[in-house]
Request: fold
Amino acid sequence: MQVAVMGYGTVGSGVVEVITTNHESIVKRSTQNELEIKYILDLRDFPGDINESKMVKDFNVILNDDEVKVVVETMGGLHPAFEFVSACLKTGKSVVTSNKELVASKGYELLTLARENNVNFLFEASVGGGIPIIRPISQCLAANEIDEIAGILNGTTNFILTMMIEKNMSFEDALKLAQDNGYAEKDPTADIEGHDACRKICILASLCFGKHVYPDCVHTEGITKITLSDVAYISSFGGVIKLLGRAKRISDDKIFAVVSPAIVMNGSQLASVNDVFNAILVRGNATGDVVFYGKGAGKLPTASAVVADVIDCARNADKRKPFGWGDSVENYVADYDTDVNPLYIRAKTEDKESAVKAIEGAVGSIQLLTNDSAPQNEIAFVTKSDEEKKLVAALKNIAEIEIESLIRITDY
Amino acid sequence: MQVAVMGYGTVGSGVVEVITTNHESIVKRSTQNELEIKYILDLRDFPGDINESKMVKDFNVILNDDEVKVVVETMGGLHPAFEFVSACLKTGKSVVTSNKELVASKGYELLTLARENNVNFLFEASVGGGIPIIRPISQCLAANEIDEIAGILNGTTNFILTMMIEKNMSFEDALKLAQDNGYAEKDPTADIEGHDACRKICILASLCFGKHVYPDCVHTEGITKITLSDVAYISSFGGVIKLLGRAKRISDDKIFAVVSPAIVMNGSQLASVNDVFNAILVRGNATGDVVFYGKGAGKLPTASAVVADVIDCARNADKRKPFGWGDSVENYVADYDTDVNPLYIRAKTEDKESAVKAIEGAVGSIQLLTNDSAPQNEIAFVTKSDEEKKLVAALKNIAEIEIESLIRITDY
Reply:
């Protein structure tokens, strides 16, 4: 079987490396006589590269070669990835991608094209890097109704939060360290504002609940407003702050989905997921909580997930895997503030005593938190569990406080 | 598609319950028009049971019914499970089992029968209960060479150790509590002596490294000799004791495999796996460490894993999944004490100062551990990393100490 790789960047060159290094066992597992990379598409030159003879710059070379049965898309970005992938599927080639933006934005469309052309469109590597998650959800957990899914889906922000929590490093210093270590890009917006995590929870929620979830329907908050003061208060409460993507089923036509900093209590499996690691918790009605943990990014982990999909395409060369989800429906994602949680609040106040009275009058009893280095005019507390919209409306009405931080408390 | 369930105990009745509760989505995922339980085999009577009309006592009813394409074996034990499963495979029925004893002892034989008869023999539920692990190893991690696998594979012993570590409860009291909670059986031998974990690591090692590993080739120690004193020393060292099943590749014809209490340092994903939870760490040459976590036992989690396999059989009704391992080879499992680790040692001694001198003379520098409630005539320490056989031989030669406890320190 002949394979083409589009995009010879970090992941693409990793795919070539994994197929070369583990060639013998990969061929065996693919149930093919051979599994070979015929072309590598990239506009750049790689003089002296060991794979130079396979490099092509013209996509049509791949598209028009009937020997190529599987195409790997590791270019990233929406265009021309979308056009190239569509064209491949239409000509009867299976496609494997690591491109979360592509799957989150165009997944339904491309899955439909794959079905119409009886080929596979697989994307294990688009979420969780080397952690197997897409396939376990679609297969291993097939006997479950999945009620909820939540994950630490972005390694960069998890590294930053870990440095803030464990080393008392400011957000800015931790971001700088992440950039110095190569964990964060020069423009870190997609990571720190939660967009990357949002794409991933969209893919997971689409798969778990059966209808496409578009990123612009999901309320997304990043971690830029988290302070060391929040970290300290929440530590005294027995928890840690993580950037979580979360989704849960409300009904067949309604889900809840949000990306935001959230509090995970110590002892939870998600609380001990540190540095650049990712973890995804799946709550099934039969299995209970199952957690998948590992490196969420990196050349070889991500590449190995891509190659596992290539092997799957090879094994199913004559047959499409039943896999995917349906179109979205209107108002499928519920308003983010209709969820029911306790909230952590940090606020400015000139008079703590009367503030507490006013707060308890508005939202019932609260748990006050302390923090050694807290300024005099600050108060932090945890509310009882209630609808967020209701809690926030009541709290915003209180003249005695000015809210500076709001973080949701989870039960994972 | 018609299914038969053999054994209407905890797991078997759970299988029937999961198929009933999630029937609609299971049929859809199975890509069949229907998926129905036709027979339930059990020698006992279940008067008034909702499924009474499906109960049969004669195995031949199932064997001779050509409509039954998939048979679920949840009887447990080796006989007659082995004979029944063999007969089903020979008549062209796929078999799904949760029976770890059967797979660990007869896996190669049954996989061969399945291949010869072009049917599937699947056993996701035999390890890790509801945690997807067999399928991720065989599929999602297909692009990796797996170098090593280690797991907390037995919920009962993990509960007991958790009580000892967190509540300072003695082994005996913790075992009693586990029995009172229904986590441990009246005769807890299979759990506390490590036999259950041994069967599971055999299945995992067979799958990861490609050749059958038989339980009697794997050195197995239980947790009955662990004391609260060990727990305290190891806590002061920054670790916890877990009962681990471990296996790693030495060469294509040699692996290392052992079941024993082992020290996991705090911060490791395995250290925070508490109570009856299980976790399995897979170390791949491309993915790095991936951890799968969840409930390792229980009616519905285990049943959901069985049903996922049933769905897989239904999806592949016309086609065998390439899956399994080869025959064992002689001396495939290396001697357990040839592994290289640091060791934790607790020993009796009448003269600590001269004991330390003698120990350091024999094995090089050591790290002494302290424990508030330690008796005067006791010493505990951690050695440098070296071959276990060599360390033990040297330590046993020291007249000044009498070794009471030896626990291996892992790097997970």
About this structure: The two ends of chain A are 44 Å apart (CA to CA). The longest strand of chain A covers residues 239-251. Residues 134 and 401 of chain A are 45 Å apart (CA to CA).
